[in-house]
Amino acid sequence: EPFVADEYIERLAWRTPGGGSRGGEAFDPKRLLDEFVNHIQELQVMDERIQRKVEKLEQQCQKEAKEFAKKVQELQKSNQVAFQHFQELDEHISYVATKVCHLGDQLEGVNTPRQRAVEAQKLMKYFNEFLDGELKSDVFTNSEKIKEAADIIQKLHLIAQELPFDRFSEVKSKIASKYHDLECQLIQEFTSAQRRGEISRMREVAAVLLHFKGYSHCVDVYIKQCQEGAFLRNDVFEDAAILCQRVNKQVGEIFSNPETVLAKLIQNIFEVKLQGYVKDQLEEHRKSDAEQYLKNLYDLYTRTTNLSSKLMEFNLGTDKQTFLSKLIKSIFISYLENYIEVEIGYLKSRSAMILQRYYDSKNHQKRSIGTGGIQDLKERLRQRTNLPLGPSIDTHGETSLSQEMVVNLLQETKQASERCHRLSDPSDLPKNAFRIFSMLVEFLCTEHIDYALETGLAGIPSSDSKNANLYFLDVVHQANTIFHLFDKQFNDHLMPLISSSPKLSECLQKKKDIIEQMEVKLDMGIDTLNCMIGQMKHILAAEQKKTDFKPEDENNVLIQYTNACVKVCGYVRKQVEKIRNSMDGKNVDTVLMELGVRFHRLIYEHLQQYSYSCMGGMLAICDVAEYRKCAKDFKIALVLQLFDTLHALCNLLVVAPDNLKQVCSGEQLANLDKNILHSFVQLRVDYRSARLARHFS
Q1: Can you tell me the distance from the alpha carbon of 261 to that of 227, in angstroms, rounded to the nearest whole number?
Q2: DSSP 612
Q3: Distance separating alpha carbons of residues 585 and 263, to the nearest angstrom
Q4: Alpha carbon distance, N-terminus to C-terminus of the chain
Q5: CATH code, 566
Q6: Which among 694, 626, 619 is positioned nearest to 654, based on CA atoms?
Q7: What are 594-620's pLDDT values in tens digits?
Q8: Domain limits at 553?
Q9: Of 74, 108, 132, which residue constitutes the final position of a domain?
Q10: Are 418 and 479 contacting, i.e. CB atoms less than 8 angstroms apart?
Q11: Where in this chain does the record put each Exocyst complex component Sec10-like alpha-helical bundle domain (predicted)?
């Protein structure tokens, strides 16, 4: 531990008797001084002893340092000597290696010509046998030495090509004949080895045949035998994948160029097996059954591309993607050239049949209804005419819309889009997809939804009809549901096909025009509200009596509100619920606001037609309170505010004459025109009394 002088002295004083550090002892400075003096002397003796020991150790260290330095110098000298010896040895080894290399070059220079000479001598000997016309060498007569014979005859065949024909025609023909015989023997041997499954023998024979012209024939034989018994099931594509997978494992052990052999096998499968299978499947239905033809074409093309994807795992050379694409194109090019025309023709006829089958099931004969474009519709809406859409049509309460039929149309279009995506050339895909979309617009939007809207508009009854059938709201509801299905299909299946092409803006514009045209017709159909108001007028006219608000016996009124009020409120609640079920989004609030405002105006004008006694006024207030409850179902602030104000106005019918001015200056009536207030006060039976007129003036 570090030495601390204060602590050391403190401990020394504590141990000394009379040092004053322990309790109960008297302090004795003399004894403490003596102890310090003695201790200082001991420390001085200890210091001298330690100093002598330090000097001794320093001398010993200096001595050992000198010895170590001397030893290092000796080792450095030894290292220099060893390095010099190593350099001399390295130079000697380099010299010897140079001599050995030179000697090897000389030996090779002598041996190579010698080997060539020996080889040439052997070839000359074999050539002489062909000249003599008798093959005596064991290499030609022993069938087990076919490999050596093949090597010799291949070399002789190359030499014979250089000889003049006029002098050596006979020997050249003999060599060519032997060349051909050996080639056939080797191919036969390869075939037999393949049937026996002897991979090593096949590899040996293939290596020999590699230098022969018939090597390609050997590959053809291998490919042909590989396919024997490989296509026994109904699924030719699965069989082809299994075959290629099996051959891929084997071909590398047999041939020196396995990727070429495997590519040739795949080409043979595509051009023979698959092309024949595709032709049989498609030509059967090409002219007689467009639906089955398109289904088969899509299925076959999909399965072929899936097979191609599996084959991409194998080594087929540098550009296997292009290689496989060309093979697929060679099979389907004649079918894909006019695919879209067949697709559009089928989709058109199929859609027309689905529509006609639906209308036939309803015993409905389609007719021409309405003329003019979207501008004409807007003009008719702006003028708020009585919907001059031709003669009224009895729809028997049916909407002429069918979700089941629409689902069938959308399903056909979805399948057509999927086929278009798979079978169209990438450059033609947006254009073809747009044509399919146009077919859907024509038959779903124009021929079905638009026709139903026109029929619905033509079937809207006049506002004075007593038994108005407001089924147009059902048309709105179903058209809204169907268009949501149409929009979903547009986003899910069409958008991915055209999202990155100029056709996108064209499709969006076409869709926008369709929506706008339908919205205009739906907006025109909202004049159904006139029919609702007309129906309410009929109820009020039939049920409301003048004696309701001016009863003969003022003290014997037992009803809380009039029968007309009950029926009108029941009718309005049904229509509000129907509107909520038929529409969605902001359209609900817009239509309900319009209906609420017209409902308020009708009740306001209706109340203006009667005179009110005191009890009749109370009954009118009860009726308006019930109307206000009904208005709450609209959930429109403006409508509720209008009925609140009307309820406040009805209070003028019963308030005491002295309180009229106070009521008129209340929060709800203060901002109303004085003429409106006056008109309600005039409805009181006691209005003509001088007292009431004086208080209100």
Answers
A1: 14
A2: B
A3: 61
A4: 115
A5: 1.20.58
A6: 619
A7: 889 999 999 999 988 888 888 888 889
A8: 544-695
A9: 132
A10: no
A11: 148-696
Degrees, nearest 5: CA angle 685-688-689 = 100
pTM of model > 0.85: no
Q: Please, are residues 619 and 548 in contact by the beta-carbon 8 Å criterion? A: yes
Residue 496 lies in a domain: no
On whether the CB atoms of residues 18 and 32 are closer than 8 A, the answer is yes
Whether residue 126 sits in one domain with residue 153 = no
Cα separations (Å) of 345 from 67, 287, 438, 537?
A: 111, 12, 13, 54
**DSSP reduced 3-state for 499:** coil
Name the residue among 130, 120, 126 with its Cα closest to residue 173.
130
| Tokens of residue 696, six digits | 């209100």
Backbone angles phi, psi at 617, to 5 degrees: -65, -40
Contact 422, 306 (CB under 8 A): no
Report the pLDDT value the prediction gives residue 483, as an integer from 0 to 100. Answer: 82
Strands in 169-220 per DSSP E: none
* Predicted local distance difference test score (pLDDT) of residue 520: 81
Which burial class, exposed, middle or buried, applies to 526 when counting CB atoms under 10 A from its CB (0-12, 13-18, 19+)? buried
In a domain, 99, yes or no: yes
At residue 390, the pLDDT reads 39
Residue 180 token pair? 């051909």
Which residue from 564, 680, 536 is spatially nearest to 622, judged by alpha carbons? 564
Q: Which stretches of the chain score pLDDT less than 50?
A: 23, 371-372, 374, 377-378, 380-397, 690
Torsion sign (Cα): 43, 45, 46, 48: positive
Q: Which residues contact 132 (CB under 8 A, 6 or more apart)?
A: none
